[in-house]
Design goal:
The protein is of the alpha/beta class. Helix content is about 20%, strand content about 30%. It has two domains: about 190 residues, FAD/NAD(P)-binding domain; about 120 residues, FAD/NAD(P)-binding domain (3-Layer(bba) Sandwich), CATH 3.50.50. It is built from six helices and 21 strands. The strands form six sheets. Strands 1, 2, 5, 6, 7, 8 and 20 form a seven-stranded mixed β-sheet that branches. Helix 1 packs parallel to helix 3, helix 1 runs parallel beside helix 6 and helix 4 runs parallel beside helix 5. The longest helix has 19 residues. It is elongated and about 70 Å long. The two termini are about 25 Å apart. The structure holds flavin-adenine dinucleotide.
Amino acid sequence: MTSDQTAIDMNGSGGDRHVVDMLIIGAGPTGLYCAYYAGFRGLSVAMMDSLEEPGGQITAMYPAKMIFDVAGLPAIKGQDLVDNLVQAAAPFNPLYILGHRAETLVRSDDGTITVTSHKGAEVLAKVVIITGGIGTFTPRPTPVGKEYEGRGLRYFVPKPAELADQDTLIVGGGDSAVDWALALEPICRSVSLIHRRDEFRAHHATVQQMLASSVNVITSAEISGVDGDDAGIKAVEVTLKKTGEKQRLEVQQVVAALGFTAQLGPILTWGLKHNKRQIEVDTKMETNLPGVFAAGDITEYPGKVRIISVGFGEAATAVNNAASVVDPSLKLFPGHSSNPDQAPTAKKSAKATV
Ligand SMILES: Cc1cc2nc3c(=O)[nH]c(=O)nc-3n(C[C@H](O)[C@H](O)[C@H](O)COP(=O)(O)OP(=O)(O)OC[C@H]3O[C@@H](n4cnc5c(N)ncnc54)[C@H](O)[C@@H]3O)c2cc1C
């Protein structure tokens, strides 16, 4: 996130109460595009995500991978697409409520929808758009060292520059692990990668690239200890599985790239029509609950395709239909963004109307 982003509750002290026109649940690519579009329609917006960073699956699983199938962008790195989406929404000052999982959704008789997070933050909105993708992600933990989370142990690297001049250990053998090793190699003082097998799950070509680089690759090995203090990690003990030999790696940063588990969890208890993994929507992207819309990977209808560009289209449909619920005098068709009075050049003050 950039420093000029509005009111970001990163750590979730809880107890906050916000009143907005639209709440977006899920700050993946679809949710971020909803935030832009809602701002463009003049709505005040809050966006809640259980992760500490926006970007959804892209930031969590493939920030360094190139994406080739977003219309108008011949090739773009995952994290660059997320950064661009955040930047596009920024002029409209969306309120990011990160590190909060939306837990309950209740609709009052007057139509106001109240969503409460697991940390007690409460958002009152006229409409809600659920862009929860494949659900909330829980990172798979390293065998040891969980107590160093936030003090050297991390699961995402949205800003590789933060690890400049650090000795970094990546844990894992999949695409994310290898991509991060390659992305961090020119930035960190040293990069090591430890994988518990001899074979990598990552793409052959990127593995070869890593093996030809300065990355210190240790296979058939596991982390068996972490040495550090309150300030952070000082070293990691690694055990070679075949011989039982132990090695000490002097590193200050550990990136656990062991994958994530995802589940829709609380969303399925809100009275929405759903199957095991998705929410049913109509052609307006509205769910069976009045005022509650959905877009992106989380939606289901015959012929659904789960890719970023489809999520973007659904976001525009959902927001424009939701806008006329917030204010029935608003037309469904938004006008064109190139009209001078609609271009996001000036900061619009997000005015709550609930
Ligand atoms: C390895 C990989 C590569 C891919 N490559 C491509 C590609 O090249 N091109 C392409 O078009 N697509 C690709 N995809 C698919 C693409 O990433 C998804 O279609 C896209 O991320 C869907 O976006 P979304 O915003 O709908 O959901 P997500 O990206 O899943 O974001 C949903 C967000 O909602 C949050 N959330 C969920 N439940 C809650 C809750 N209760 N409270 C708060 N927050 C919640 C989650 O934390 C998450 O941040 C790829 C996917 C993977 C896994």
